[in-house]
Design brief:
Layout lengths: L2 H27 L2 H21 L1 H15 L4 E9 L2 E19 L6 E4 L4 E9 L7 E8 L5 E3 L3 E3 L4 E13 L4 E8 L2 E11 L2 E4 L2 E2 L3 E2 L6 E11 L6 E10 L5 E11 L2 E13 L1
Antiparallel strand pairs: 1-2, 2-3, 2-4, 2-5, 5-6, 5-7, 8-11, 8-12, 8-13, 8-17, 9-10, 9-14, 14-15, 16-17
């Protein structure tokens, strides 16, 4: 083989090798579009994960607050008495408790319960008032936590009495006369003075309803007599007629005759006692 032919073969071999390398480079660059297309999928995944993270945290905080703090205290009215109220409380654990009360709101006054205890009762004495009061129980645990009940409103048991004068007849044997009556702070003068005899009669009338003091069993009906026989001056005298109250929710009819300074009064009374 000549020298020229040998050179030609070497050149062809080099060209063939270069062509294979170029083809390999083209094949390696072909998948690049697929990699670029997958990029949006990679960036959206973290967004979904971030929006779910806060939910477990807020749920746990709310639950622990409602179940691990505070003391439950319930108050109820046990009994209404003529001289006060009996109140009871029940707490979720032993507490030192007081009954806070007042007129128009549950404050201004306090009555302690025996304790510390998880339950207890106290009598609140209210003999001098018929007004309703507001009250609530405040309980404090040994570690300083506090529980407060709802507000109760109540008043003591009150009896009321009404005295009706159904009939009043005055016997006046001589001269002129009259009579005035008084009951629990109210005065009425149904006849006279200065009425001539032999008799005088009054129209029926009634004293206003009055709240009774705690434990009261009766009150006097005051009778003031007036009598004058000329030329003598007018005379007066007061007689207190004892009146006993019937039981609550009932009425009683009383017939009474009373004589003083020469005249007599005949009374027919109706006494009614209610309780609320």
């Amino acid at each position: 083989m000549s020298r020229r032919a040998l050179i030609t073969l070497v050149v062809l071999a080099v060209l063939a090798t270069a062509g294979g390398v170029a083809g390999g480079l083209l094949l390696a660059r072909a998948p690049e579009p697929a990699t670029a297309a997958a990029a949006p999928t990679t960036t959206t995944a973290p967004v979904t994960t971030d929006t779910l993270e806060p939910a477990p945290s807020s749920s746990t905080t709310s639950s622990s607050t409602s179940t691990t703090t505070g003391i439950s205290v319930q108050a109820r009215l046990v009994r209404r008495l003529e001289d006060g109220l009996v109140v009871r409380y029940d707490a979720s654990q032993p507490v030192t408790a007081v009954l806070a009360w007042g007129f128009g709101g549950p404050s201004g006054n306090e009555a302690p319960f025996p304790g510390p205890s998880a339950q207890g009762s106290v009598k609140l004495t209210l003999a001098k008032t018929t007004r309703a009061i507001s009250m609530r129980v405040i309980g404090r645990s040994a570690d300083g936590r506090e529980g407060v009940s709802g507000t109760l409103t109540a008043r003591r048991l009150v009896r009321r009495v009404v005295l009706e004068v159904r009939s009043l007849l005055l016997d006046i044997p001589n001269g002129t006369a009259g009579i005035a009556t008084g009951f629990l702070g109210t005065t009425s003068t149904p006849l006279g003075p200065g009425l001539p005899g032999p008799t005088a009669a009054s129209e029926p009338y009634a004293f206003p309803s009055v709240a009774l003091a705690a434990g009261a069993s009766g009150s006097p009906l005051a009778l003031r007599f007036f009598h004058q026989v000329q030329p003598n001056p007018q005379r007066t005298r007061v007689v207190n007629l004892a009146i006993s109250y019937p039981g609550p929710g009932s009425s009683v009819i009383l017939n009474r005759d009373v004589t003083a300074i020469g005249i007599t009064v005949h009374l027919r009374l109706r006494l009614t006692v209610t309780r609320s």
